[in-house]
Amino acid sequence: MTDTLARICARQPWLTLALWGVLGVVGLILINQLLGSATTTELSLTTEVEATTASGLLEDRLRGPEPVTEVVVVQAGSLTADDPAFRQKVETVFGAVLALAPDVVTTGRHFYQSNDESLLSADRRTAIIPLVLAGNLEEATDNVAELVHVVEGLNTADGFRVLTAGTASIAHESNELAQEDLEQGERFGIPIALVVLVVLFGAVVAALVPLALAGAAIVVSLGLTALIGQALDLIFFIELMIVMIGLAVGIDYSLIIISRFREEMDRGKDKIEATIRAGATAGRTVLFSGLTVVVALCGMLIVPASFFQSIGLGAIIVVLVALAATLTLLPAVLAILGSNVNRLSLPFLRRASATGDDEPAHGFWEVVTRAVVRFPIISVVAIGAPMLAAAYFYFEIDTGLNGVDVFPEGAQTRDAFFVLEEEFSFGLVTPAEIVIDGAINSPAVKEAIGNLEEAIANDARFTILRAEQLLSPDELAGLRAVGYQLLPSGLVVNPAGDLALLSVALPGEPSARPAVEALEDIRETYVPAAFAGVPAEVSVGGRSALTADIFGVVDTYTPIVFAFVLGVSFLILMLVFRSIVIPIKAIVMNLLSVGAAYGLLVLVFQKSGGILGFQHAESIDAWIPLFLFSILFGLSMDYHVFLLSRIRERYDETGDNAGAVAYGLRSTAGLITGAALIMVVVFGAFASGKTIINQQVGFGLAVAIFLDATLVRSVLVPASMELLGGRNWYLPSWLNWLPDLRIEAEETPPAEADAS
Predict the structure, then answer these.
(1) Per DSSP, what are the bridge partners of residue 400?
(2) If one looks up domain 361-404+555-756 in CATH, what number appears?
(3) pTM (two decimals)
(4) How far is the C-alpha of 204 from the C-alpha of 344, rounded, in Å?
């Protein structure tokens, strides 16, 4: 298949280029027209959970669609609410933000309208202006930029501080920070990757081709995402995922093909023959590697959460497009370039990169090879022990969802969060919503509600919110006019009297562990105790409740994803190498790489603050371990198969296990290390971003790839193979019926193949 594709594209290069040019133009048009509307910042689950049950009840039978709220903060340095200047500032701010009605803001209120003391801090130096934004969350997120701009204009050096925070403004600023990280990752990652490629190839033209191919794959992938996003809910992080993974695999796959093409050219083949040969050999390795990555990433699609499915889908799309470009566009480019791929050569680097597979090196990797083969036990212990020690810290991991409280310093929603949390409660912005479904006015239900309110009120972590704290006077009057009961305790009862809402402010950032644990206490302790034997159903919703449900889904599906990825990896490797020992070792080695990466994540982000320039975090985002596991298992299979296929090839020829191991390591270590270095550079560039999520993802991927390609593939794998000897290739006789798949094509000259 791969040699056929290479032959067709090499013999029709300009047509192939034209087709990819059309795809690129279409991709750019789709990106410009549709990508903005294809993604969302709203987390969702595709399975029914308690939070979605509560939200559905409220929408159908109490308030309609959930309003998008925002809180503007006005804080004075020395004045209080009793000073005329303070009042003037609050009314000025209120007038400016209400001037955005009706497109951005629908309603709002402030202290001087109702003398509601809940709108002032205890020292009366901070006032809040609750707002309701127009439209749903997506529309509010698009429009809130105008509100943010107005607030920033009012935050002048006049002795007052004006800030705003809410679901929409936090999502808006999160998008901006992600875009800045994306641009920084490209700005730093691409030039450094180019330098590495120039060193590896010894020629500027050869180094530019992989970058161009990766760029084409990213553009087409983003265009496809823009289309798919019109039908599916895709999280905005998918764009960063496509660019990051696209650069890594696009360059990686091209590196393998171009290296083989240049080898064939050096052996005297013309450019068409060399292109076809590269497609028939390295192309098969790339195809197998890419499909293995895709299969591993399919584990992400099992999890019924939009975030997991979005990032999994984005990675799958860009890997498939990068594969298509590598197997079609790249042969066309190489057929056009021919020997010009070596243009702008740097002579010293060109000579260093020209060592063929059959020429024993006399440098670093030859020394490593001899040491590993001669002292396999020492090699295993010297490398395995530190990695196991690093992996130990995984057992101290705290997972959560990092939110606005870990935004970079200077982010205005972060500043607003800390002011609200210190002077009021950030739970005003995203309260927990306790929904009681039953005959609300019946004695039993009334008593249960009273018991629940008393238990919550006695817990210092919680504050029951009254309707007056959440709604404007006009909204309150409108609800009373149509029959809603607004009780002094804070309970809101619908006109039918069969559904009630109790809003509770939780401590801290709504997605952080303290808020989630407090929410779980309401669900698991207070509600069951109050409503035991009572004819009513109680469900708890809100942002913290949805986060808790996401944690539950992750805990449930993590072993399923692990079993899927490990099982599929075992089957694939068993079929390729006709051995049960090889896949078992591969799984153990991959788990060691991932475990060490997990442990280093904990050490760098949780156990320390500011080390290597990274931000301290109380938790690792709950989705990151599962994501790292899926993608690293796929990516590491590339190097594993590339190394083992060379070892197996030489072992089949000679029957000498030690010699085959030495040959395989010597002939692939340089390319494996170079390809891995490209990925480390790309992922490391994104890890240098401002947001904690990009730092954790980039660092985790970079560290795991580095460990996997250097210590594991170049030391542990060959050392363990040397120890086991011929037992590496053990396959029980009752499995002899399995097909014999081969990755590397036989080294048959094209002329002989045609004659045959």
Answers:
(1) 621
(2) 1.20.1640.10
(3) 0.83
(4) 5
Strands laid side by side in the 105-108 sheet: 105-108, 126-133, 68-76, 160-166
Degrees to nearest 5, angle at CA 694 with 689 and 700: 115
Regarding beta strands 536-541 and 463-465, do their DSSP bridges make them parallel or antiparallel, or are they unpaired? unpaired
Q: Does the structural domain 65-172 have CATH classification 3.30.70.1430?
A: yes
Peptide bond before residue 514 is cis, with ω within 30 degrees of 0: no
* Low-confidence stretches of the chain (pLDDT beneath 50): 351-361, 745-756
CB neighbourhood size of 754 (10 A): 7
pLDDT at 358: 44
Instruction: Kindly report the CATH number that applies to the domain delimited by 1-40+202-354.
Output: 1.20.1640.10
Residue 164 carries which side chain, given as an amino acid letter?
T
- The pLDDT score that the predictor gives to residue 201 is 81
Domain with CATH 1.20.1640.10 in the chain: 1-40+202-354, 361-404+555-756
Residue (of 503, 476, 479, 506) closest to 491 by Cα position: 503
**Under 8 Å between Cβ of 294 and 245:** no
How does DSSP assign 506-569, residue by residue? Answer: PSS-TTSHHHHHHHHHIIIIIHHHHHTT-SEEEEEESHHHHHHHHHHHHHHHHHHHHHHHHHHH
In the numeric block, the tokens 């083989």 are attached to: 260
Residues in the chain, total: 756
Contact of 137 with 46, CB cutoff 8 Å: no
CATH class of 431-541: alpha beta
**Structural contact between residues 216 and 16, judged by C-beta atoms closer than 8 angstroms:** no
For tokens 């891995």, name the residue: 676
Which pLDDT value is given to residue 354?
A: 45
Q: What kind and span of H or E run contains 438?
A: strand 432-438
Whole-number pLDDT of residue 329: 94
Residues paired with residue 305 on neighbouring β-strands, in sequence order: 45
Query: In angstroms, how far is CA 167 from the centroid of its own chain?
Result: 20
Q: Are 225 and 258 in contact (CB under 8 A)?
A: no
